[in-house]
């Protein structure tokens, strides 16, 4: 047999090498993508861990006074007080600011559901920190996070396990990080921007894409409606942000979202506790139910308030307590009193 290769054999060998390179190429593509995803995930994990560690504030109460023991969001139903504070770098008033937005979220592990209650900022409530009634958004200005937390617990008769507090910059930066949100603006209006420049934001009515400043203006304005309608609008804006943040188009922007939060958030959740909430999003079919506090306009003097309807408030309390699977001491005392009356009456 000749030791020399024929031209045809070289062609066959060349083709085999090309096929081998193609196979290697197609194997490497998913491998590179997979390793890149792992590297990106590791980067996000470290980035998130750093941001959450900076945002973590362990100087407050370890648990709510209404809890017998510390809860664990991995296993227990918990509540979160969400506060948007009326502060910014320009104002330098983080510790004495009022809450521009106040919501309470109760999370149920078994149902994989969230109740999101909007509390009108002008609600006329008792503030334990000062021992008198006032607008609920004053509570934070009177005594910071602890005062706001205690006021909400007193109002709703449920434990507030965690809080998340963000300012203007965090809201704006998160919306911008996901390239804005699509929203149906209910009416035309002009509103100041985050730098307090009057009428800097002008939006027309209708479906449109909003950037961070525009979304903030829409969330804050109440020039053509009331505090309750504004609360409902804020809930819808939060839903829009959540939907956009978890969409496929935003996956590669998670690092921008994390950076957007940065130093503009504070919470009593440890990084590990925050990560335990991820299960709600990964289970699928997360049910979000929005609630508000019904009431009516109340102006005994020169100051306007929102007078909460007591019967509606009792229904809201019951809804939140059942969702948390929490039995309040007030409810227990009332039942014991009713049972005592029944026994004394012979029933």
Essential attributes:
347 residues; alpha+beta; two-stranded antiparallel ribbon; disordered C terminus
Short description:
45% of the residues lie in helices and 20% in strands. The chain is of the alpha+beta class and 347 residues long. The protein starts with 6 loop residues before the first helix and ends with a helix.
Secondary-structure map with pairings?
Layout: H1 7-55, E1 78-85, E2 99-108, E3 113-118, E4 124-127, E5 132-135, H2 139-156, E6 162-166, H3 168-177, E7 181-185, E8 189-191, E9 201-203, E10 206-210, H4 212-220, H5 227-245, H6 254-261, E11 265-267, H7 271-276, H8 278-282, E12 287-292, E13 295-298, E14 305-308, H9 310-324, H10 329-345
Parallel strand pairs: 1-6, 3-12
Antiparallel strand pairs: 1-2, 2-3, 4-5, 6-11, 7-10, 8-9, 13-14
Q: For the terminal residues, how far apart are their CA atoms? A: 113 Å
| Sheet having the most strands | 6 strands, mixed
Helical fraction equals 40-55%
Radius of gyration: 27 Å
What features would you describe in this structure?
The protein is of the alpha+beta class and 347 residues long. Helix content is 45%, strand content 20%. Strand 4 (124-127) and strand 5 (132-135) form a beta hairpin. The chain is globular, with a radius of gyration of 27 Å.
